[in-house]
Amino acid sequence: MKDKIKSLAHSALPEIIAIRRYLHANPELSFEEFNTSDYIASKLKEYTIPFKQGMVKTGIVALIEGRNPSKKIVALRGDMDALPILEKNTCEYKSKNEGVMHACGHDVHSASLLGVAKILNELKNEFEGTVKLIFQPGEEKLPGGASLMIQEGVLENPKPDSFFAQHVFPSMETGKVGFRSGMYMASTDEIYVTVKGKGGHAAMPNDYTNPLLIASQILTDLNKAFMISPPSYSLLEGDNVRPPTVLAFGKIVGNGATNVIPDEVKLEGTFRTMDENWRKEAHKKMKSIAEEIAERMGGQCDFVIEHGYPFLVNDEKVTNRARSAAEDFLGKENVEELPLRMTAEDFSFFSQQIPSCFYRLGTGNISKGITSGVHTATFDIDEKALEVGVGLMAWLTLSELGA
Could you give the 3-state DSSP secondary structure of residue 99? Predict the structure, then answer.
């Protein structure tokens, strides 16, 4: 079976590359993946795989039933949305939608899942159980397509016994994959702060309350309060070590001028951690610090926290089985242990409900100059990784089904 899957993945590679390139050239933003959805649906029809389209508007759920379909159900996910990034690559499959780009590899994920679907559908008479394929919208945007699909019943009829997803990893060479059992990725919250003062002429300091100074003090004090110790990202607080934590602000807007003090300043940032109790405590703490500073300096502060994705936990038993299957398929030397990451993934919603494994697919190639990270305007992959990704996911699935 292993050799058969490798052969099928190799034979399917030109088609999967073509699918990936089509998706890459035609990216769509979160929850706007209508053409992407229709294209994926057309491929599933071509493969004669039954599916349901329109979950959370653009999501698709397909089923491949082997013998004794109810014996065990394994779910696989591929996300579909792109990012608001202007692509700087010059390849033939460069984005045709200016300002929108598959810079996080979701084109790879969807193309790979279609490849897996093609292979498993050809082998459906050779395994027992059911494979549930989930093409998910809106991974990049709160509240996350995974959470919305769950609300619409994606984990029912049938309910998966285990769940897998892979994600591109440009810092890992093509041919390799990575796994980590237990806690793997952080929760994420978005922070929106409005600091209010009193505007005026810059030359008349007695007549205004400068919100830029208040905002600066808030940033400085929050940075001190949530100081972290790389590379573990653990927060140091007296003699205590808090769970891995990141508080960072990436945007500040104060629309004044050289001689104009604005009435307000806006800040935007993110908070990430790996403990729900500390997450709640930290929310209260940062809000209290900001509001106290603003009041003390004669202003006001509206501190809004948008609750985002939970932390992602890989089930130990499922992940260990997957790692063992990967070592068998690719060789032990090509399977690596992954470190903790403070990035976030809405697959975490699935991992909180179903025993899951979220693993990394190496897509980099230093010798070819394919080294750009995700969320950059020059991100690309070594397309040989598609053969690895398709073959491995198909093998993990059949291994999990006990085939």
Answer: coil
Residue carrying the six token digits 């089904």 = 401
Q: What is the DSSP string of 284-299?
A: HHHHHHHHHHHHHTT-
Sheet strands (E) in 67-204: 73-79, 130-136, 162-173, 177-179, 182-185, 187-196, 200-201
CA distance 368 to 170: 12
Each domain of the chain, given as residue ranges in start order, spans 2-185+311-401, 187-307
Cα gap 43→13, rounded to integer Å: 15
In 3D space, the residue among 119, 106, 111 whose CA is nearest the CA of residue 9 turns out to be: 119
* Measured CA distances, 311 to 253, 268, 278 (Å): 30, 21, 12
State the virtual CA torsion across 2, 5, 11, 15 in degrees, nearest 10: -150
- Alpha-carbon span 201 to 3, nearest angstrom: 76
pLDDT truncated to tens, each residue of the chain (403 aa)? 999 999 999 999 999 999 999 999 999 999 999 999 999 999 999 999 999 999 999 999 999 999 999 999 999 999 999 999 999 999 999 999 999 999 999 999 999 999 999 999 999 999 999 999 999 999 999 999 999 999 999 999 999 999 999 999 999 999 999 999 999 999 999 999 999 999 999 999 999 999 999 999 999 999 998 876 554 555 555 556 678 889 999 999 999 999 999 999 999 999 999 999 999 999 999 999 999 999 999 999 999 999 999 999 999 999 999 999 999 999 999 999 999 999 999 999 999 999 999 999 999 999 999 999 999 999 999 999 999 999 999 999 999 998 7
Q: How far apart are CA 198 and CA 258, in angstroms?
A: 16
Whether the Cβ atoms of residue 178 and residue 335 lie closer than 8 Å to each other:
yes
Rounded to an integer, what is the distance from CA 322 to the centroid of its chain?
20
Would you identify the CATH topology of the domain 187-307? Answer: Alpha-Beta Plaits (3.30.70)
The reply to whether the predicted model has a pTM over 0.70 is yes
Q: 371 near 174, Cβ under 8 Å? A: no
**Beta strands 162-173; 73-79: pairing state:** parallel
CATH topology classification for 2-185+311-401: Aminopeptidase (3.40.630)
Distance of alpha carbon 144 from the chain centroid: 9
d(CA 343, CA 340): 9
